[in-house]
Amino acid sequence: MIHLAGPYALAAVLAGLGAYGVLARRNAVLMLIGVELILNAANLLLVSVGSVGADTWQAGNVLTLFVITIAAAEVCVALAVVLALFRLRGDVDLTRRAE
């Protein structure tokens, strides 16, 4: 039997750091890194829970692949938006209003 206290605690720490990065930072790149930490916490939970059961289909691992794919697409779109924001305003601070 695998003990899940370690992966659960690590996922909680990752999700907490990611939430802090999203809520406390105003830089778009740092907020994006926070979102990625939250998604990695979800991936860790999916893989650790999927490894416990005797599921022959490995639903946790398959869902993790979907989350990784969606996260990669999200990073591409978000970085394109951040690059356009930087070209338009010269910085990526999200608290400053657009003129």
Automatic annotation (TrEMBL):
Enzyme class, broadest EC rank? translocase
UniProt subcellular location: Cell membrane; Membrane
Q: Tell me how this protein sits in the membrane.
A: Multi-pass membrane protein
Q: Which EC numbers does the record give?
A: 7.1.1.-
GO function terms (MF aspect): NADH dehydrogenase (quinone) (non-electrogenic) activity; quinone binding
One Gene Ontology cellular component term attached to this UniProt record is: plasma membrane
Q: What keywords is this UniProt entry annotated with?
A: Cell membrane, Membrane, NAD, Quinone, Translocase, Transmembrane, Transmembrane helix, Transport
Question: Would the keyword Ligase be found if you checked this record's keyword annotation?
Answer: no
Q: Which domain of life is it from?
A: Bacteria
- Catalysis: reaction(s): a quinone + NADH + 5 H(+)(in) = a quinol + NAD(+) + 4 H(+)(out)
Major localisation: membrane
Pfam families of this UniProt entry?
Answer: Oxidored_q2 (PF00420)
Role, per record? NDH-1 shuttles electrons from NADH, via FMN and iron-sulfur (Fe-S) centers, to quinones in the respiratory chain. The immediate electron acceptor for the enzyme in this species is believed to be a menaquinone. Couples the redox reaction to proton translocation (for every two electrons transferred, four hydrogen ions are translocated across the cytoplasmic membrane), and thus conserves the redox energy in a proton gradient.
Could you describe the subunit structure of this protein?
Answer: NDH-1 is composed of 14 different subunits. Subunits NuoA, H, J, K, L, M, N constitute the membrane sector of the complex.
Q: What is this protein called?
A: NADH-quinone oxidoreductase subunit K
**What organism is the protein native to?**
Pedococcus cremeus
